[in-house]
Amino acid sequence: MAEEKMNSDKMWVTMGPQHPFSHGLWTLRVEVDGEIITDAEPEVGYLHRGWEKECENRTYNKIIPMADRLCYSASMTWSHLFCKVAEEALDIEVPERAQYLRVVADEICRIQSHLMWLAAVGTDVGNLTIFLWALREREFMLDLNVRLCGQRLTTNYPRIGGVRNDMPYYFERDCMRAIERFEKSLWDIIRLTDDSSIFVGRMKGIGYITRKDVANYGITGPAMRGCGVDYDIRRDDPYDAYGEMEFEVPVLKEGDAYSRYMVRIEEMFQSCEIIRQAMKKLESIPKNAPYRLKVPKCIPEGTHMARIEDPRGEGLMYLVSDGTESPYRLKVRSPVFVNVSASKHMVQGVRIADIPAIMAMIDMCLGETDR
Amino acid sequence: MAYESITNFIVNRGYEDLIAMSPYEVYNLPYDIAVKIWESLGGLIAWLINLIFPNNGVSQWLISDPVTNGFAIILMVIVIFAVSFVFCLLMLWEERKVLGRMMDRRGTMVGLKGFLQCLGDGLKTFMKENVVPKAIDKKIYWWGLSLVIGTSVLLACMVPLSNRWFIVDYQAGLLIIFALFALAPFLILCAGWAQNNKYSLIGGLRAAELMISYEIPMLILLAGTVLMAGSFNINDIVAYQEEHIWFVIPQIIGFFTCIVCAVAESERVPFDLSEAEAELVEGWQTEYAGMKWGLIMLGDYFRGYVACALVVFMYLGGWSLPVIGGEDWYLQYFPEIVFLLKVALVFFIFVLARAALPRVRTDQILNVGWKALMPLSVINLAIVILLKVTGVM
Amino acid sequence: MDMSLYPHAVAMSADEFMSWSSAMINEMLSAGTKRTVDKLTGPVWAWAMRNSMHPLHFGLACCAIEMAAASDTRYDAERVGMIYRSSPRQTDILLINGWISKKLRPDIRRLYEQIPAPKWVVAMGECAISGGPWYDSYNIVQGLDQIVPVDVYIPGCPIKPDAMIDGFMLLQKKIDAYFRRGVFMTD
Amino acid sequence: MSEDANIIEKPSRDDIVSLVKAEFGGKVEFIESTKKNIKAINEGRRLFMKADREVLHDLAKYLHDKLNFEQASSVAGVDWVDHMQVVYHLTNYCTSMVVEITVDIPNDDLHIASVSDIWEGANWHERETYELFGIVFDGHPKLERLLTPKSYEFFPFRKSYKLRGQE
């Protein structure tokens, strides 16, 4: 083995924890023959903090802000998922006003998470203007977060049995303004990316995954919908108020990095649609309707499971409660954890210059990968 | 010896007296400036010595013709380097501010509206510790670095700003600049290899790959210009463009191809594969710390300046303005300023490309180079030949 | 020596005490040309270093998202001359903005050593300051100062981009103090 | 319908129950959920099974091949002090049905057949469960530590391992 390793002209390049393309801390050791990649080996675990073990040391209400810090760029969906699991354990139905508020907060979080992803794509492909324009749009979505939930990033907005507070004064008008402005200015960024043949040339034709491999590798979310799997938890397995929303799930057949990119851009437009419908329905609900239920501190025994459509894929939480104040066991299924495990398969046979483009399409968020 | 005022001690001679000693037949502005500087500087020293020891040999010697001429040449080169150095800092400032404005933010506000930011960067990098990794190939590490910076600075000083602002009015004008320009990728390859770092090795290899794609189209474009102008000498090319028409009009295809090649030559964003930030950390500059990296960045901007200067010479008529004719036109305005403004305009196009375009992959630049730039430059050459044969130009 | 930055001498780290004491000795012993040269050139180097701080492009967790937001159009960090360089050789500030796991300790230590000499470390966010919400984790280093000497702590979880730029303003004052005591002091 | 007839593209809930009962008989028992107003359970998109350790791999293969459960969402370990438990969640895209299989493992013999040869997605989940609980998945291609550093010897998620704040 040693001499075979010696005179093979392949070279292991470590794209280590501190690397501009990694957007967080993970290593991709890549075996390179010239510039073509023959073998790859991802390594995660640099942000592992034993989140699930720490939950067993916290009461249920203390876990909500911790759940925000699972995937910090899409924090609303994770704390929302934890509250859903707890509500399923308590077997309660969240009041209607809270359901719609959660849907609005979820979709705002999805738009700002996709914009953060678009910014990351910009730096990976080498065009800093996309990075800054995407973050400029994201600032307006963060302002909506600040008005609705109080904090820019890790919003800590849902509670078990409802939401923290009702819509603030004039929020509905600001939300509509922000959405209109966003839809107009997203076209500026699209003109920078889709109309530039270099960007399309860099994205098309790399990171191929067939329809069968996507399910086999467990890749979920926009990465899966880019390869032809027509499945979206918000539509097929609706939770909260998503049942009443009509929106169209973008699905593309090609299965390369460019189609995954197109799926996410289309999803941003769909999110604006959902927010408009949710806002219209919120008007019809009387202002003083309850937005939160009284919930006991201890959750009864049993095993419970809930799923949610995170901007990066399918988030799933499995809760084993034993009637005390804190959970007995809380398992978190993170979509990026599984997508990264498939990176070895996606990266075969491409050039080094394509790795950032492919990995950007998985939209890494290492907080939830290492938990 | 009675007290003598400094002015009449320094023999203020007209330029003609020096003509015998000066290496130039043509009037050369920086040499003239240098002579005046030395006359005031050297004259001051000589006058001081003369005060103490009146009528001694040294002060006479100091302001004699050969000594003035010798020191003037040294001061002239310093003046020429100072002008191109300050203009490079201006270009760096232009890039940071224009890039900032295009990204809808303010850019640097250090110093006066951001200009002193380049000074701040430079001084800071000079003060950093000189970190040299242990397992490097010492000779090539240092020679590669110094030659890259050396050729860049040498190039920047060889670019004539007008027909009276040059070091040497060499007959093979553009050819020498191209020859020195083509050296940089080899030195980057050697520097990349010497750093014993995988990223820099790949970066160095890419620099060599990149060179294959843009070098030959660039030379064919050069042939087009030289054929139309009739000589390699830059003064003749500019004079020709001034009499007839700027080469942009007839060789419009060549102009755009040349801009693409110039961007690739000075390794700026759409084609900055050897220093690809996202994939190769810092490409071939990864292991160069502190002052070494500061000088490399300066070298990059010098090469950008020379690439823009090439485009201006070949297509935008050097330092001539189409409007103002007449024989002593250079008395009404400064041709050097006109030339530098044109270079700044072309650099603006480079910065526009940097703000708008993502980075290209290695195989894509090779395709573009061979399948797009090469045919375009040949078509451009065909047009030039056609115009030349039919006697239009 | 501007004592306002060290209100309580007790809390100085070993490195800071070394540089503070050697600065005191330099004040007393140095005289003549070296002293005047230090006095004259000190502010120039300080101005240069202050206005071109290059932090390392090294995002760990939530504060990394806010670090990215600090360089966008609203909170433009480049106004004060901050660009994120990706190679440690060309940076002078190690910015740690997330929780540090035990697996990452050797990497952070190596990055710290790779950065050339006049360097500073900024601990951004609760997790880098003291382990933050993960106080009882088995895999988290409870605070960055167990690995590298830290210069500026920026509290908040996650911190706002303007708090980060404010932290760097404080670091600029510290850079001033570092250079006023003579640049070429080997401490 | 896919090419060979026996793959049921869209198995309904009672299809699955009847087929699995016919195939595996006593070894797999179905648990009825007692929750009333959870939308997913009322609309029949959840199915809870308890399987024995020996029959798990065949059950997984059966569900994957015959009943078109294409994705293994997650593999979770649970430490009930006196015995260990592994919980599988399998998803079917067409009917968006989620099947939850729980398998009990005695404390003295922590071995179970790995399903990473059926679903590639479960590979890293099994590695993670191994390094945090110590449950060995036989037949796993690369059963090593993934998240915790290589130098850790203990299994952190077991109830026996106490966190800093606990006792």
Question: Can you walk through the features of this model?
Answer:
The complex is a heterotetramer of chains A (371), B (393), C (187) and D (167). Chain A is an alpha+beta fold and 371 residues long. Helices cover 50% and strands 13% of the residues of chain A. The longest helix of chain A is centred in the first third of the chain and has 30 residues, at 96-125. Chain B is mainly α and 393 residues long. Chain B folds into two domains: 17-80, no CATH class; 128-389, no CATH class. Helix content of chain B is 68%, strand content 0%. In chain B, helix 7 (138-158) packs antiparallel against helix 9 (183-194), helix 7 packs parallel to helix 13 (290-315) and helix 9 (183-194) packs antiparallel against helix 10. The radius of gyration of chain B is 24 Å and the shape is globular. The N and C termini of chain B lie far apart (67 Å). With 187 residues, chain C is mainly alpha-helical. Chain C has a domain at 54-175: Rossmann fold. Chain C is 43% helix and 6% strand. In chain C, strands 1-2-3 form a three-stranded parallel β-sheet. In chain C, helix 2 runs antiparallel to helix 6. The longest helix of chain C has 20 residues, at 32-51. Chain C is globular and about 55 Å long. Mean pLDDT of chain C is 82; it is low at 1-10 and 183-187. Chain D is an alpha/beta fold. Chain D has a domain at 13-112: 2-Layer Sandwich (Beta Polymerase, domain 2), CATH 3.30.460.80. In chain D, 23% of the residues lie in helices and 28% in strands. Chain D is built from four helices and seven strands, in the order αβαβαββββαβ. Chain D has a five-stranded mixed β-sheet. In chain D, a hairpin with a 2-residue loop joins strand 3 and strand 4. The C-D interface holds C 102-103, 135-139 and D 148-149, 156, 161, 163-166.
SSE topology:
The complex is a heterotetramer of chains A (371), B (393), C (187) and D (167).
Chain A: H1 2-6, E1 11-15, E2 27-33, E3 36-43, H2 51-55, H3 60-68, H4 75-90, H5 96-125, H6 128-149, E4 158-159, E5 162-163, H7 171-193, H8 197-203, H9 211-217, H10 222-225, H11 233-236, H12 257-284, E6 302-310, E7 313-321, E8 329-333, H13 335-341, H14 343-346, H15 355-362, H16 366-370
Antiparallel strand pairs in A: 1-2, 2-3, 4-5, 6-7, 7-8
Chain B: H1 6-9, H2 15-18, H3 29-52, H4 57-62, H5 65-102, H6 116-127, H7 138-158, H8 173-181, H9 183-194, H10 198-229, H11 234-243, H12 252-265, H13 290-315, H14 329-332, H15 335-356, H16 362-389
Helix pairs in contact in B: 3-5, 5-13, 5-15, 6-13, 7-9, 7-13, 9-10, 10-12, 10-16, 12-13, 12-16, 13-15
Chain D: H1 13-24, E1 28-31, H2 39-42, E2 46-51, H3 56-65, E3 71-80, E4 83-92, E5 97-106, E6 111-113, H4 122-133, E7 136-138
Parallel strand pairs in D: 2-5, 6-7
Antiparallel strand pairs in D: 1-2, 3-4, 4-5
